[in-house]
Structure prediction request, 348 residues.
Amino acid sequence: MLKLKFLTGVLYIFLAFLLAIVYYRWQTYVLLHEDFELKQINITRGESAGEIIHQLKNQKIIESEFGFKIYIYLRNRTDLFQPGQYYLSPAMSWKAILNLLTSEQANERTVVVREGWTQEEIAVYLEKLGLFSQQDFLGACYQLGSSGIFAPEAHPPLAENYGFLSDKPNNHSLEGYLFPDTYRVYRDAKPETVIKKMLGNFDIKLDSGIREEIIRQHKSIFEVLILASIIEKEAANETDRRLVADIFLRRLEMGMPLQSCATVNYILTQKTEHLSLEQTKIDSPYNTYKYYGLPSGPIGNPGINSIKAVLWPSKNDYLFFLSTDQGQIIYSETKEEHDLNKAKYLPR
Prediction:
């Protein structure tokens, strides 16, 4: 009887060990979930492995803190985590997670530039990431945009490397050309390096089909970016972007002012959803209530869909529109209908 109990105990231990090995291999190499959503993990200098693993568990990237601790102990990687910002998903295996958090990529930062952000907003964001100061980034944007050179003695004018800048006025910064996307940037990168990444991406995304259409319509890239940057702020989805684009284009043809709140907000210190009568009278080339035509430059950095909306708008009979507090756009064909909609949908 004692021998049977001993053999049974050994069998249980063996099965437990076998299950542990299977679980280890599964967690290490296999995709665990269908959840591919990226979750942000921030590792600060001096943070312990236990604190990092706890953060992974709280974000539901791993299911077992204890198991992951054993895994990194067996891999002898407990003290190799590097500070930085990472984006991980629950679908990643333990091996992939550990390799990312301890590899050379740990010296990089993930930079996510949102569609419509101004260069000032990008500068604030990059400073928060700890890359460099707002002043350094904005200074580079203005210097490169106005002078067109990285270093007079070593580099040719910027437009020689990036032909799409050839129609940009020399007195403008690079607002509008800092393409919104996700980038990997070294922690010790210079502002010029990040700017060159964005310009290079813009060069790729502005493909031959888009450039040919701009030429066919007798527009300039700079003009398209100005209107696209306004549309990016005024409309949140592709359907509305194309409708709004057609309204603005017809207003320009008819000699009507664009009357875009977004262009006035660009020059305001305190942004507002609904402009006051006084604000619509501000004397600025960006005030499209006071001055006809396009403002003097882009009011942000538009995404590719807003650029396409300018070139391929949805034809309609509207001339007016407004946005409700819920983000819905209400269209009108006449001024009278527009005034009724303002009374109905906008706060008094």
Residues 221-316 form one domain. Residues 128 and 192 are 18 Å apart (CA to CA).
